[in-house]
Design a protein that fits this description.
mainly alpha, four-stranded antiparallel sheet, globular
């Protein structure tokens, strides 16, 4: 050892990654079907290495020396054929071969393999573009934007599931998770109250300035709110961390002293996630307004990876406090994903606080803050009531909410994030008619996605919870308790937020931030009273019912008020389509439930997959019969349509090449 202190530092760095690798291997090895024994003879191993060596040698050869079956040589042969030249073949200056046939432009770029695409600039090997394709409708544009968000949501889904599996294995449903969920809700409440209106106010203003070709003013507004929000939330974080003991005593008086002390120590760390979340919320909204959807929604998954890494490294040394430190690291990484591109663009100046546009933004945000103090206090009262329940009951609600959050990340974020900028632009360009058209399309798409998702997840609740959580400290009794409330929590945390979020955006586009806040504040007061009655009667199950009941009432009132404001809104048509989507969802619920019960002898994962594979295509078949436009949009969102188009183009190309 040349220098012991430096060697220790290097050793600790290596220890972090080695520990992470070991813990991930240990945990994933316990997942059902994580490994399968395979018998391989010696000849198979030597044959594999011979094949691998041969392919490596071929790929390393210059293009002119490669065998004739390699793609580059096949393309060269095709480009030399006169028939292909008559169809419109040509070699570009970049060495690419381009064939034109029957309205299709097919571009081959030099590469050792083919990757099929549909006209996007990201595809390197094969680009297929339809030259006679009709202009893309604005609704398809929204669906494609939603696909980008959904693709990011898929990444979030995988990472989120992994994170929840690890949390359930290590901490189960007990004191540590109860303390964490109690402390966690306070910074979430502060973030929600102070930041909910931010993106709804800043995106329309940013879009309006950009549409008016006042780019410098748009970014000056961003810079002003960047420093304003960062400074304000930093003060809030420091104050909350200093008074964490008092806050826990105020909002969770029913906790025993040990659990209360643990929750206070967690809160002291979690409070510093608030300013990071604020800046992340601002920059995510700006990125969405710039039509960048994938990375903003993927930022949550990137943060979750950091969360898991910190958790695995620290939980043996700091115990439950690793939950708080992991979340703080996640908030930092999540904010950086959208902070970096916004800061790289930057702004040349700031708007003075006395500027009328800044004052207008603050005025529009005030209703969110003032009414949000009551509106979003429901989560605080939920923890207040749950603090008197037996150990583990709050964790049951938390795990059911995690499943809902995973579904919301997968299907809920895409539509709302994609439709809001489109609604704002439509309202600026064509007025009420454009807003109504986008709002109706968004509502139909939201209902067509949310209702069957709720139906299928409800039908597979038991095997889904079993597969995700039932291992380690998470016992079968906890599985039964969580799966019992998954359908209830899904209504209040997925279906109603998706519908209500889109209805609220219709108000925000018209610069009305008062109506939604007032209605939500009134129904929140009702929640406080209703939750008290239900928790005394049915315990944690009653507490789970309180939220969807009040959320449903909020949607009914806001929908009625919106129809009185937007007279051209086709309420009868929307109601009929809602009933059709509901009937179709009931059919797929029964189908998924029958599959789960028929395959009860199989492992939980196979039960869930079989139910999804049966219910999903069945629902799409029904949806094509009742609403073809929305069915196509759903396929666009999920990426299925792109894969079908790419496959058809590839088959057509192969057929034309063989005929030539």
């Amino acid at each position: 050892m040349v220098f012991l202190p430096l060697g220790q530092v290097v050793g600790w760095i290596a220890w972090v990654f080695l520990t992470y690798t070991i813990e991930v291997v240990r945990l994933t090895a316990r997942v059902p079907f994580a490994s399968t024994p395979v018998q391989m003879g010696g000849w198979m191993m030597w044959g594999y290495y011979a094949l691998l060596g041969g392919l490596t040698w071929c790929l390393a050869q210059p293009r002119e020396k490669k065998p004739g079956f390699f793609p580059e040589n096949l393309v060269s042969q095709c480009s030399g054929n006169r028939d292909h030249h008559r169809r419109g073949a040509g070699v570009g200056g970049d060495g690419a071969v381009r064939l034109t046939s029957k309205g299709m432009v097919i571009t081959f770029l030099p590469a050792p393999q083919f990757i099929f695409g549909t006209g996007t600039a990201d595809v390197k090997e094969l680009v297929i573009r339809e030259t006679d394709k009709p202009p893309t409708s604005s609704n398809n544009t929204v669906a494609r934007a939603a696909f980008k968000v959904t693709l990011g949501g898929l990444f979030r889904l995988v990472v989120g599931i992994s994170k929840q599996v690890i949390l359930a294995y290590i901490f189960g449903a007990g004191v540590a998770m109860d303390a964490y969920l109690t402390a966690f809700v306070i910074p979430i409440y502060l973030r929600t109250v102070l930041l909910t209106g931010l993106s709804y106010v800043i995106i329309p203003a940013f879009v309006q300035l950009q549409t008016a070709e006042r780019e410098d003013d748009a970014w000056a507004l961003v810079g002003t709110f960047f420093w304003l929000i960062g400074g304000l939330l930093a003060v809030v974080a420091i104050g909350g961390s200093l008074f964490s003991q008092s806050l826990i005593a105020l909002f969770a008086p029913g906790l025993n002293p040990g659990k209360a002390d643990l929750a206070a120590r967690m809160l002291a760390v979690l409070m510093f996630s608030v300013p990071l979340a604020g800046l992340g919320s601002l920059t995510r909204g700006i990125q969405n307004a710039r039509n960048h959807f994938f990375w903003p929604v993927t930022s949550t998954a990137i943060g979750a990876v950091g969360n898991v890494l910190v958790l695995l490294v620290l939980y043996r040394t700091v115990g439950p406090l690793s939950l708080a430190w992991g979340y703080l690291v996640a908030a930092t990484l999540q904010a950086c994903v959208t902070l970096i591109p916004v800061l790289r663009h930057g702004w040349t100046r700031l708007m003075p606080l006395r500027d009328s546009r800044v004052r207008e933004m603050v005025r529009l945000m005030l209703p969110f803050v003032l009414f949000g103090i009551l509106t979003y206090s429901t989560s605080l009262f939920e923890r207040y009531y749950a603090s008197g329940l037996p150990d583990g009951d709050l964790s049951y609600l938390g795990y059911a909410s995690k499943i809902s959050e995973i579904m919301m990340a997968l299907i809920g974020a895409g539509i709302a994030a994609a439709i809001f900028p489109a609604m704002a632009r439509a309202y600026v360009q064509t007025g009420e008619g454009g807003l109504v058209e986008k709002a109706e399309y968004g509502l139909r798409l939201t209902l067509a996605v949310a209702m069957p998702a709720w139906a299928i997840v409800s039908a597979v609740a038991v095997p889904l919870v079993t597969f995700l959580f039932e291992r380690g400290a998470f016992q079968h009794t906890a599985t039964c308790s969580v799966s019992r409330i998954v359908p209830i929590v899904m209504i209040g945390a997925v279906v109603f937020p998706m519908v209500g979020g889109l209805i609220s955006r219709a108000y925000y586009v018209t610069r009305d931030t008062h109506t939604v806040s007032i209605v939500a504040a009134v129904t929140s007061g009702l929640y406080i009273l209703l939750a008290r009655v239900l928790v005394d009667t049915w315990g944690y199950v009653g507490l789970a019912w309180a939220r969807p009941l009040c959320a449903g009432l909020t949607i009914l009132v806001l929908s009625w008020l919106l129809t009185r404001r937007l007279r051209s809104l086709h309420t009868g048509k929307l109601l009929r389509e809602t009933l059709m989507y509901g009937a179709a969802s009931l059919v797929v619920f029964l189908a998924a439930w029958l599959v789960v019960n028929a395959l009860a002898f199989l492992p939980a994962l196979l039960q869930s997959l079989a139910a999804f594979l049966v219910a999903g295509p069945l629902y799409m078949a029904i949806l094509f019969r009742i609403d073809r436009e929305i069915a196509v949009s759903v396929l666009e969102m999920t990426g299925v349509r792109r894969m079908v188009v790419g496959a058809r183009a590839a088959i057509r190309l192969i057929a034309e090449t063989s005929q030539g």
